[in-house]
Amino acid sequence: MKKILGTLFRLILFGGFIVAGIMVVRTLGFTSRQIAIEAISPIDIPKGAADRLAAALTLATISTNSGIDTNAFSLLDTLIIEKYPLVDSMMEKIPVVPISKVYRWPGKNAKLKPILFLAHQDVVPVEENTIDKWTAPAFGGQKADGFIWGRGALDDKTAIISILEASEQLLSEGYVPERTIYFSFGHDEEIGGQNGAKKVADFFARKDIHFEYILDEGLLVLENSLAGLSQPLAMIGVAEKGYLTLRLDARLPEGGHSSMPPANSVIGILSRAIKRLEDDPFPGKIKGATRALFDHIGPEMSPLYRTLFANLWLTEGIINHQLSKDPSSSAIIRTTTAPTIIESGLKDNIMPTQASAQINFRILPGESIASVMARVKAVINDERITITPQEGIGQDEPSSVSGVGTFGFQVIQKSIQQVSPEVLVAPALTVGLTDSRHFRNLTDDIYRFRPYQVSRQDLRTFHGINEKISEANLATSIRFFRQLILNSCL
What we know:
Elements lengths: L1 H27 L20 H9 L5 E2 L2 E2 L1 H14 L1 H6 L1 E2 L7 E5 L9 E6 L22 E2 L2 E3 L7 H16 L8 E6 L10 H10 L7 E9 L10 E8 L1 E10 L14 H14 L8 H10 L5 H8 L1 H12 L3 H4 L5 E9 L9 E10 L5 H12 L4 E5 L17 H13 L4 E7 L15 E9 L1 H4 L8 E3 H18 L2
Parallel strand pairs: 5-8, 5-9, 9-16, 10-15
Antiparallel strand pairs: 1-2, 3-4, 4-8, 6-7, 7-17, 9-10, 11-13, 11-14, 12-13
Helix pairs in contact: 1-9, 2-5, 5-15, 13-15
C-alpha cells in the first residue's frame, strides 16, 4: 500500500509540475495587444462649446411610448442651424423622416466606402419623485464646478454636440474628407428607434448604401474597471446583447373568498416560477466579445490577475464565479433574467384566478430567442404557466461580433490613444440596446463607444439622478471625433 501511495503522490506531484509549467509558459506568452500610438497635441476647443451643449440640455426632447413633444425637437433643430452654420449650409440634409436628422458630408474619393456616426436626440423623462433630488435642474443646462448638468449629458446629446463641433471646426479650416461621412441623429432611440433609426436604415438599404464601419453609443472609458487593472479602460463595444421580454401567465379555474384560500394560489404558482428562474440563472460563458476583452486587458494587469487570465483553460470556473457576484460583470458573461412587471388581484378579500409577470432577458451572443424560450420553459416546468413573447415590445437577436483587426476598430483605437494616451483600449460586449441594431445589414463592422472617462458612480446617473458631464470630457469628445474623422479619411 505504501508503495502505491508513494507512486500516486509522485504522479500527482509530476502532474502539478506540468500544470505549473504550462501556466508559466502561457503567462510569459500573454503579451500586450495595445498598439504604440504617439499622442497628439490637444487642439483648442471651439469657444462656447460648453454653452452650446448646455443650451441643448435645456430642451426636453423626451420620447415615451405615449408620445413625443415635437416642439422641443424643433427647438433643437433651430439651435443646430444657428450654432453650426457651416454644417447646416455645406452638408446635405437628407429628409428621411421628420424629427430625425441625417447629414451627408461628401467625400472626394467615391471608391471608398462611407462611414456612419449614430447618436440620438431623445432622452428619458425624469421621475416626478426625483426632481427635488437633482443638484441642478434636470433641464436647466447649468454649468457648475466644471460640469454641465442635465438629462442627456451622457445619453446622448454630448455626442451630437461633439460631432457637430468637430465638423464645424474642420469645415472652417476648409477640410474636405477623403470618404463620404454620414451622421444620423435619431429621435426615438429610448423607445426602440422604430420610427427613427429603423426608417433611416431602411432608406440606406433602398439606396444600396453600405458602410466601412458604423459607430454608435455604447461603452465608455471606465476608471477602476477591474481588480488588478490600474489604468482607465476604454471599451469599444464589438457586439450587443439581444432583447426579449416573456410574459408568464398563471391561471386557475376558480378563485373564491380570501377566508378560504386554496393550497396553491395563482400568485403563489407564479411566484414560484419566477423564483425558479432567479435561482437557476443562465450559465456564465467567457466567450466572444468578453473573451476578447480579457485577452486585451489581461497582459496589462497585476501579476496574479495576468496569470489567471492567461490560463482561462484552467481558471475559467474561478473567474466566472467571481464575475457572477457583481451585477455589472455578471451581465457580460451570461443572458440575464430580470422580472420587471407583475400583475394580479382586484381586491384584498378576493382570490384572483390569474396572475401575470413580464421577465426581460438580455441575450448573450451565441444564444438566441429560441434557446432562451426553451430554457425558460424547462426551468419553470409547470403546465399551469403559459409563456409567450410580450406583444408590442421589440425582440432582437444578439448581434454578430465585429472584428478587432478591421479598419474601423483600428481607427477608433488610434483616435482614442492619440487623444487620451493614458488609457488602455479593449473590445467588449455592450449589454444595452442601441440604435445600431437597425443597421446590422449595412456593414460588417459596428462599434459602440463614447470617449467619456467616468467612474462607477457616474454610471448610475444614466437614466438616473444628477446626470452630468465634465467640461474636460466634452473637450476630449470633440477632439476624439475630430481625430476619428481625420484618421478615417487618410
